[in-house]
Amino acid sequence: MSIAVDAIKAAVNVKAHAPCPMCGQDGWAGGDRLTEVNAPDEPAIRALPFVCTNCGFVRLHAVQPLETIDD
Ligand SMILES: [Zn+2]
User: Which of 7, 57, 68, 71 could disulfide-pair with 22, CB 3.0 to 4.6 Å?
Assistant: First the structure.
């Protein structure tokens, strides 16, 4: 895995900046590690998790679409 996680994290923070859908707060931690979402007989989805610092709600952003965004 040779993904520029910092660049992806920055893209998520800029392009997908929004308050938490559960509690309405706007503080997110994480986004500095990759994880994978797996389903049987399907390719894994590489994703960045972010955690709401107020209520703990976890959101996941798939990495692949972000890599193909043109600025
Ligand atoms: Zn929250």
Answer: 57
Q: Give me the CATH code for the 3-66 domain, please.
A: 2.20.25
What pLDDT does 2 receive?
Answer: 45
Token reading at 45:
């989805």
Single pTM value for the model: 0.68
How much distance in Å is there from the Cα of 42 to the middle of ligand 1? 31
Mean pLDDT of the chain: 80
In which region does residue 31 sit, left (phi positive, over 0), alpha (psi from -120 to 50) or beta (all else)? left
Ligand 1 geometric centre to CA of 12 (Å): 17
